[in-house]
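Hello support,

Our group uses your service weekly, and this is the first time we've seen a run hang past the timeout. The protein is Pinin/SDK/MemA protein domain-containing protein. I'm not sure whether the cause is the sequence or the server load. Input pasted verbatim:
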Amino acid sequence: MLVQNEIHSLRRKRALLQSRCRRLETRLATANSSGAPEEASTAPPSITMHDDVEDQDISKEEPPTNRPRVSTDGRFLRATLLGHLQKAQRDLASERDNPETQRRMAALEHVDAKVANQERQRMEAVIEEMNQKLTDTKNLLSTVEEELSQKQSQLMGSVLTNHYSHMAKFIATKTQPTLWWMPGKESEALEPLRRSTSQFVGHKLEDIKTRLGQC
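Update from on-call engineer: The timeout came from a worker crash unrelated to the input. Re-ran successfully.
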């Protein structure tokens, strides 16, 4: 009964380990398919004419008193807007050529590259950790399966030992498959058959012990 309980416990442990292996393999497949995060692009973002106007410093705009009076004429309005856009574009180009701006952009690019590298290293560490967990789980699963096989062989040997020990009370035939019978009346003529059966059972028990020793 104790061996049966151990077998039941090992089977449950094996099922849990198999489930854990499947989960880890699924997570690894997902992590490997997604890959490490791509490095941030170092190219400066493209800015349209519309963005140039919105990003300009308000202090650079002309005072309201110096602005030309907007005419209802559509052509004058378009010319005025075009002038503002061209001025904003020139200011932006001048700002980009500024050494301080270039240093600031270089610093931002360095930070982006560093963050991307840290994220890639983090992903690699996570994948390595999951691989190690999967290896450890598979090794433990192999140990459990080996122990389970030994316990099952031990249980089978115990069952067969009890079976043949009980059948030793009967007389075995020499035919195959073996038939067991109990005489209705004991006599001296049955002694050779008793000895033959005892030898047969002894060989079976020795064979069981040998097999258990090899497991």
